[in-house]
């Protein structure tokens, strides 16, 4: 924890809001990607929780003509499963775009990330999904990171929380209908909350 604090402090000193750090927690859901995106998020799996830490670097900031921020991001995650199963670790690498919506002195960001995800073992929710659909599993899968957040400092009018975002996210692993390692259904969706700070 001390190392993380020192890292955040050092980044704050040397960077000009080009870095981001996100801490997130999410729970697996049986609903598929399309259902979640339109607002259906039931059937949660209480024994499949993920805790994630992501870091990013700003590649291109928004302009008046194009209200997008582009980051390259990487992260590590820890999946807690059924108590009888061992925890699983994940590494991700992805490009993420944020669409900035400014109104009434506030900012809302809609984010979409695309990249790859590698886990140390097969997640139980992915194994169950593959079995029920007579499908395959893979450690490496496509990764989507979809988020919606707001600028906490602007919401409560406190400059001390500048560039601190609070939001909801969807972590999605899939084989893109069989394009990756012949995995059509053996993926997973985790829905949760996060705090992200830009430096």
Which key features would you list for this structure?
single chain, 199 residues, alpha+beta, 8 strands
What is the strand arrangement across the widest sheet? 1-2-3-4-5-6-7-8
**Structure summary, number of beta strands:** 8
Give the SSE order as H and E letters.
Answer: HEHEEEEHEHEE
* Low-confidence spans: none
Q: Name the assembly state.
A: single chain
Report the total helices. 4
What level of helicity do the residues show? 10-25%
- Overall pLDDT: 86
SS content category: alpha+beta
Distance between the termini: 19 Å
Task: Please tell me what the overall shape is.
Answer: elongated
Rg calculated over all Cα atoms: 17 Å
The major sheet is characterized as: 8 strands, antiparallel, barrel
Portion in strands = over 45%
Please provide a written account of the structure.
With 199 residues, this protein is an alpha+beta fold. Helices cover 16% and strands 53% of the residues. It is built from four helices and eight strands, in the order αβαββββαβαββ. An eight-stranded antiparallel beta barrel has the order 1-2-3-4-5-6-7-8. The two termini are 19 Å apart.
